[in-house]
Sequence to fold (257 residues):
Amino acid sequence: DALPPDAHPTSLIAPALFTYRVLDVYPHDPAAFTQGLIVRDGQFIEGTGLQGQSTLRRVAIETGEVLEQHPLDAQYFGEGITEFGGKIYQLTWKNATGFIYDADTLAQTGTFSYNTEGWGITHDGERLIVSDGTPLLQYWDPATLQPVGGVTASLFGLPIANINELEYFNGAIYANIWQTNLIMRIDPVSGQVTGVVDLSGLLDYAPAPTPDAAGTQVTPAPDVLNGVAYDEGTGRLYVTGKRWPAVFAIELLEVNP
Fold:
C-alpha cells in the first residue's frame, strides 16, 4: 500500500543494532549515584546525585580513587554534567538551577536557571545539548544558556521518553534511556534514532562485592545503567551506572552490519 501523504519514509528506517566487547574494567565508588560522566585530561569528572549526597568529583580512571570533590548543598539533587570552553556545567533534577565550575579547579564560578527538569547535558562543540526526561532535546547557546532550538528523539517515528545521560561523539548524540540497558544513538538534526546499543549483562563483568565479616554486602545494590563518557584523545568509550562497582571501557560491535 502507498504511504499516506504526511508520512516520512526516513523515519521507518531500522536503526543499526550494537552489542559490545568489554576491553577493561575499572573500580568505581559503589556509593556514587552516577548522573554524569566525562573524560578530561586522562581522568573522569563525575556528577553524582541524591538529596544530600550530590557531588562534582574528579576521579582516577585506573583506580577509581576520588581525587577531589565539590559537594552540593543538601537541597540539590545533582544531575548531568559536561565541559565546554574550560567550564563544567552541572544540572540539578527539580531545582531548576545549574552550576558552573572552573574545569581545572572544580571551583564554582556561577549558577544559571532553566524552566524544565534537568537530566542530561553534553555539547556538539557549538551548542549545549540538554535532556529533561521527555523526548525533547534542547539546544542551548553556551553564552546565554538559553534555548536556541531542539529536536524530538524518535524511533520509527515514535517519540522516545526517559532520555537521561548524554554524550556527543562521532557526529551523534548517545543517550542512556532511564531504567533500561539501552543507549540510543540519535541524529542531532532529525532526532531520529540511528542506532541502539544493548548493554544487557554488562554488570556481570564487575568484580563480586566484598562482604563484611558477617557475610553481608556492605554497599548499596547497583541501580540502573547511567554514565557514558567518550575520550576524544584515545577513542575509548566508558560506561557505568548508578552505584555500580565498576566502570567499563567497551567497544561497540554492530550486529549483522
Remarks:
- The chain is about 0% helix and 50% strand.
- Residues 59 and 247 are 11 Å apart (CA to CA).
- The chain has a mean pLDDT of 90.
